[in-house]
Amino acid sequence: MTGDTVEAVSCTQLAYAFGETRAVDGLDLSVREGEVFGLLGPNGAGKTTAIRCITTLLPVPSGMVRVFGHDTARDRMAVRRLLGYVPQQLSADSGLTGRENVALFARVFDVARRERAARVAQALAAVGLTDAADRLAGTYSGGMVRRLELAQALVSAPRLLILDEPTIGLDPIARTGVWEHINAVRAATGMTVLVTTHYMDEADQYCDRVALMARGRIHSLGTPAELRQGLGERRRAAGTGATDTLPTLEDVFRDVAGSGLDDQSGDFRDVRSTRRTAKRVG
Ligand SMILES: Nc1ncnc2c1ncn2[C@@H]1O[C@H](COP(=O)(O)OP(=O)(O)OP(=O)(O)O)[C@@H](O)[C@H]1O
Ligand SMILES: [Mg+2]
What we know:
Shape: globular
Number of strands: 10
CATH class: Alpha Beta
Protein name: ABC transporter ATP-binding protein
Structural class: alpha/beta
Helix content: 40-55%
Radius of gyration: 19 Å
Order of helices and strands: EEEHEEHEHHHEHEHEEHHH
Strand order of the largest sheet: 6-7-8-3-9-10
Oligomer: single chain
Pfam family, one: ABC_tran
InterPro entries: AAA+_ATPase, ABC_transporter-like_ATP-bd, P-loop_NTPase
CATH topology: Rossmann fold
Keywords: ATP-binding, Nucleotide-binding
Low-confidence stretches: 260-282
CATH architecture: 3-Layer(aba) Sandwich
Largest sheet: 6 strands, mixed
Bound molecules: adenosine-5'-triphosphate, magnesium ion
Domain ABC transporter: 9-240
Mean pLDDT: 88
Number of helices: 10
CATH superfamily: P-loop containing nucleotide triphosphate hydrolases
């Protein structure tokens, strides 16, 4: 923390290992209040693991994580009250209606009983699901399920919204829809957003700043424009790559992630994420 600005998220030398796998390996990360921050990186980079530490779903074995100044190790409930979370794996219950799913989250996240019904209706309206609210979630399309999960995360009016691949498997119109809903809530509340995505065009368009993560730590950080310009300058200096046009964020991603690809990256990614989506949405 510097001066009187409170950071929404601050990770200092965060490390988390699954057995021999160092999923997060000395992560330093700072998300400013009010910004949309994109955590990007190849499959297996450690994004979801880092996010699960920030949400207190995983303990922090090494290093420090603070959410609006609260230490996640010491002040777990305070942290949970501040955040909404859309996990990478689908979390809506297909045997409940949309409204029941959101009401469940309202209860879990401690929304006052007398406010619950109104807040649930408001969250459903915010994502355009009012008309479908009393249908079973099992009858929803993939895009509707993702919007339902957004309503679940928004019902507690979080100061920090954490989204792990919120738009995976959605058509371009549905993707835009999810972002429009997020931005409408941000405009009304000043909510901070931490998001992961493999869609570089989305990160470029919607994120104020992005961090490129690989092998458990951050390798590049800045606004999308800064990162693109930085790569453009490096290319010009080295006389490699296309130097007449500004690189895209996808070029920046390839530049960071492209060296020493292992079997979890490259073409496998598309296959894996397609399968994962088919399983989750089906
Ligand atoms: N429950 C687990 N048990 C064992 N290893 C795990 C577990 N979860 C993740 N890992 C490993 O930790 C590393 C980081 O995984 P993580 O899910 O954090 O990556 P990610 O950046 O979110 O990837 P993706 O883009 O595919 O979602 C990977 O090597 C993964 O295999
Ligand atoms: Mg992940």
